[in-house]
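Sequence only, no structure available. Ideas?
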Amino acid sequence: MKKINNVLERYNLKANRYRFVGKAVIIETEEGKYVLKPKLRDENSDIYHYLDSRSFNYYPNIISSKDDDYEIMEYQEEVEMPLDQKMIDMINLVSLLHSKTTYYKEVDESDYKKMYEDVTNNIEYLYGYYNDMATHIETKVYMSPSEYTLIRNISKIYSALSFCKQEIEEWYKLIKEKRKQRFVILHNHLELDHFIKNKNSYLISWSKAKEGIPIFDIYKLYRKHSLEYEFSEILKQYEKGYPLLEEERKLLFILISLPDKIEFSGSEYDMCREVSKKMDFLYKTDFLVTPYYSKKVKN
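Reply:
I predicted one. Tokens follow.
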């Protein structure tokens, strides 16, 4: 607490009350409320300066110096709203972030080849892993409930792997001759808790921000919230402000369609929940992806 007070003194702030929320501290002063949190060792201290230079200032006002070990920002009260609407508002802001920070970067074929090989090797590994697992389970006289759930849905895993195998080949054909790739600033830590809405919109927790291709913000958000929200509408809303290129959308669909590796460890209750969750993810992803390919067939 003494260290926190020393930081506050440098900005002429005197705390009347503290409230700890995770690693952050909400501080009430006579001048107002502030949030103070320690900076990560590898945190990009120039991210706010860069965002300002791109006319993207949708984050709470930062009053601390970039050289401090702590970040101090003005506290923003949230307005109560349905979570579905909050998600749409957040994705609109992410779309704007990507639009404001887009640039094109020279790339080498080896960059594409590495991703192609990484995904291809992962697909082959998962094929072998699930073949071995299915063979082992089917030799049992009595399957556990979690094993039965997996075997009953194993065709969905193979279908997802087959889709990914076909699409990574198509993606590589599209991309391997290109020498420029679209890059943006990725927030890289998207979740609803990192979005604040009142009369303005704010993204917080920029400690993991970096440059990259735009789909990775969408990919991480999908992995975090896919079973809670209808992502077909979220993706459509994002693309209204920032349409994905064909190769970007294809890679996004490949990455979200790759099945997770299911390992049987822990209690049977936990494993039933885990297997069911992984299967729900595959079915929901198929529901998201299929209409895009149906449109292509009709055209």
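The mean pLDDT is 91.
Hope that gets you unstuck.
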